[in-house]
Amino acid sequence: MLSLLKNKAFNIFNTGHVLSKNLFTSPTSLDKGVPVSSDPSFDGTSANYLEDMYNSWLKDPKSVHTSWDAYFRHSSSGRGYMQPPNFSPENTLSYLKSVQNNPVSSSQVNERLQNVPEQSIVQDIVNNYQMRGHLLARTNPLDTMFDITDKTTTLTDQLGKVPSEIVRNQKIDESMLTSSFSLPSSTKIGEGSLPLKEIIKRLELTYCRHIGLEYMHILDEEQCAWIREKFETPGASELKKSEKRLMLNRLAKAVMFEGFLQKKWASEKRFGLEGCEVLIPCLKHIIDEASRKDAEMAVIGMAHRGRLNVIANVCNTPYHLLFGQFHALQAEDEGAGDVKYHLGRYNKRVLPVTKKDFTTVLIANASHLEMVNPVCAGRVKAEQFFRNDSEGNKILPIIIHGDASICGEGVVYETINLANLKNFHNGGTIHVIVNNQVGFTTDPIYSRSSFYCTDVGKIINAPIFHVNADDPESALYVAKVATEFRFTFHKDVIIDLVGYRRNGHNEADEPMVTQPLMYKLIKTIPNILEKYSKVAVQTGVVTQEEINKFKEETDKLLEEEFVIGGKLTTMRFADWIDSPWSGFFKKADDTKIPSTGVGMDVLDHIAKKFSEPPGPDFELHKALLRVMQMRQEMVNNHTADWAIGEALAIGSLLKDGIHVRLSGEDVERGTFSHRHHVMHHQSKANTRYTYFQDLFPGQAPYIVTNSPISEYGVLGFEHGYSMARPDCLVIWEAQFGDFANNGQALFDCMIASGQTKWMRQCGLVCLFPHGLEGQGPEHSSGRMERFLQLSSDDQDYLPPNCDEFYDLNQLRDINWIIANCTTPASLFHILRRQVKLPFRKPLLIFTPKSLLRLPEARSKFEEMSEGTEFQRLIPETGPAAENPSVVKKLVFCSGKVYYEFVKVLKEKNLENKVAVARIEQICPFPFDLVEKEVQKYSNAQMAWGQEEHKNSGAWTYVQPRFETALKGERDVTYIGRPPSASTASGNKIQYQQQYKNLMADLVANLE
Fold first, then answer.
1. How crowded is residue 616: how many other Cβ atoms within 10 Å of its Cβ?
2. Tens digit of pLDDT for each residue in 434-479?
3. Dihedral sign of CA atoms 698, 700, 701, 706 in order
4. Which in 130, 435, 604, 636 has the greatest CB count within 10 A?
5. What GO annotations for molecular function exist for this entry (predicted)?
6. Quick check: 32 pLDDT over 50?
7. Distance between CA atoms of 843 and 827, rounded to whole angstroms?
8. What are the structural domains of the chain?
């Protein structure tokens, strides 16, 4: 209870929530979630005692104990944080009441607490160091450092006086420095009493040397106390000799590796780690600590700075494989590859320190520095799910940032915001910043508004440890504590390694052009191995002979590996796969597409469960009762609308043992109120029912979860989730297809090109609500043309039509699949086909809005039963198909415009004159089926019809492919809206006129 009251007081007086009613009257603890009334020391009538006492003090300062009088005066002055007095009966509300009823004489008060003012000053000093000591810490190696062999020198020693920046709120009398004061409970620097001079010295040794601690923003007092224990306790940060020796070994490998690359490839781009090589021993120590806590895997996401060193010395990659990347080698396998500092790596080995199996994964990343963040988070979440690691103890995420990018790229915030959300939380990420103090050529003053680059971490109350990267012992201790914190509290933690960049942005860049003074100083600084080797010898950690021997052995190894690498003539992209799927490709039958139809009994069972309310005691909203009734009517007729078709696909896959995860903004209900996979009890708080959790005995788990309003971050998370295993269906739905624009970089750099660059297959499904419904430019188009333009098929190549594996080969060769389905049966089959294929490709489905409830856009269960399959092209089945020789126009289209075309043709009695064929799978293009349909209507004009503008939609993709399919024998004309810079008109009159013109073009030259 004491921590609750301290937390409340801290928030009331120091975080802007002054006298907030919510803090005074909240029924639960801020840090424990324990009801106030459950504390046996309170009778239930004193929950508002702080407010009562404060109000009483406002009326008469003498009505409260002198300690509270001093506290309220200090807090009201706005001079910063002061620790509240002890919450004991004699000086809180019970004492207040006794004072009001039986006033105590001033002599009695002074007798009880004689040194209150001076003691309050001491408390204030302690709090100031804890809150602001990091501002004076010598964390920048380009500024004056403390001698790391001398662990006793403080800032006061250097300045000759107590730093005014810390204690400026207090005037310290010289006599106080030698006076002893009781140590408050809020500090761990000692017990009992100490002279003020010694108190300040111990606080400075903790907060003002080479580690800057930011943690007082954390609301949980238990976490704050834990951090104080780790850093304030005298001698706590001292490393063992064995730890120092191991750290020196790892540091030497990191430094010598960078030096070797510089010697052999001086002008080659490699984005070296020089100036922050301590990253390598820190990462390895984090992994060792995680392994000691029985973790099995670390998943690392990072940009290119220092990536080669991480690949070599953290992922334990043979040096010659990496050296081979500097040569022009012929690839043994398919793909285009990527530059060496973007590559990923997967390594499983026994760790020398713990003797335990451990897997290290480095996720491949593109040049968008922080793009990998959500991918890493999602990959970890999936690995934890498949290992039943609900606490996050087995799989550890580590994300390595740059100082300019962590505060500059919005995806960082989007990812960090996921940290504590249900269905996204992965047990806490260790963030490590390689802080060069410059971004490419930009100084911090021009690259961020925040004081620190790490301030984004405060949104989730993450502790932030700034540390001087040229003090390896301090850096290693910070890494150790950060790992312990993560596994203790399962929260994110941030390590800010403040170093520098010895060379320019890349090795061919000249940094003196833009940072002349900084680089003049950097040139004078010896590398960290030289500096720390002297320290290690001086302090007896190693001998100079041992250092010399190690350097000789490492040099010899690097040279030998260099020779081996120089003899390589070929390379395998497969050596750099970051997510191998063991056994998947061996057991998969790549000669056919497995059947996607399902038995009628299974379909009936799923549909019945999906159309029933949760139970008689579950109070549903009246509107949902009508939805259930309509579903039951359709199910009784063996008919599926879009929501039921989707449900049948998900339910049947769960029965097959396929884990399904669906996320996105408001997906539980569905943006268009059609899905309703989660029901909410109308009179009981936090009472929900999720469909498909209990369909079949032994079924796979189903996760459906709303996400934050984030496209880039959540899309990346789900992409990462899909990488872990091939035997799951991961679906991300954009609220509107247009919103996927905010994730376009991910589509470009990872989803569309991941297999080509990194041999990394991905089965992610993306749903884009799409269609011009008169809702304006941003709620109309999913920008189909952008995704089609990224497709890798050749518009001039006509696949041979004699191959019985035609469809399968097309899917195998394409980089992703793009569909615009018109029926629930199409959706059902293409979702099931996605996990039945013997390989994995991303699947992009442009889903409807108006078709969700259109009676014509329904499918019979028979269209999804055994023996049925996905139709890439649905041919004309109406009157025109009965007499094709008299058909004047054959129109190909996709999506909802099909139903609009059919409606107009029926109204104008032209159904026998115009045939309309639906292309359900646009990419890869169904050349064979198009050719077959064209031959059927030999006398018809050929046209492509779409609702989108001419420069949007599928027209620019399908036009050259129609020409290839028709071999130049027939022309294909365009039916659709004219070109436009906007995806759709927001003016109703203009929209309606465009629609009329579209339909007029459909029937032109026919009547």
1. 6
2. 999 999 999 999 999 999 999 999 999 999 999 999 999 999 999 9
3. negative
4. 435
5. metal ion binding; oxoglutarate dehydrogenase (succinyl-transferring) activity
6. no
7. 11
8. 1-114 (no CATH), 241-566 (3.40.50.970), 600-770+820-864 (3.40.50.12470), 881-1003 (3.40.50.11610)
- In the prediction, which pLDDT does 643 show? 97
Return the closest-CA partner of residue 897 out of 926, 875, 919.
Answer: 919
Residue for token pair 């052995």: 553
Helices (H) and strands (E) in the chain, counts: 39, 28
Residue 703: its H or E element: strand 702-706
How many other CB atoms are there within 10 angstroms of residue 53's CB atom?
21
Look at 844 and 43; give whichever has higher pLDDT. 844
3-state secondary structure of 545: helix
What spatial distance separates the first Cα and last Cα of the chain, rounded to whole Å? Answer: 85
Query: Which DSSP symbol is given to 885?
Result: G
Rounded to 10 degrees, the C-alpha dihedral 21/26/31/33 comes to: -170
Cα Rg, the chain, nearest whole Å: 34
- Beta-carbon contacts of residue 560 (< 8 Å; ≥ 6 apart): none
Q: What is the mean pLDDT of residues 744-761?
A: 93
Q: Which residues contact 111 (CB under 8 A, 6 or more apart)?
A: none
Average pLDDT value for residue range 779-792: 95
Residue 331 pairs with which residues in a beta bridge? 571
Segment holding 728, helix H or strand E: strand 728-733
Mean pLDDT across 949-965 = 96
Between CA 730 and CA 718 the distance in angstroms is: 7
Whether the Cβ atoms of residue 401 and residue 433 lie closer than 8 Å to each other: yes
pLDDT digits (tens, 9 = 90+) for 791-840: 999 999 998 876 677 889 999 999 999 999 999 999 999 999 999 999 99
Handedness of CA 448, 303, 512, 279 (dihedral sign): positive
What tokens appear for 171 in the block? 């005037």
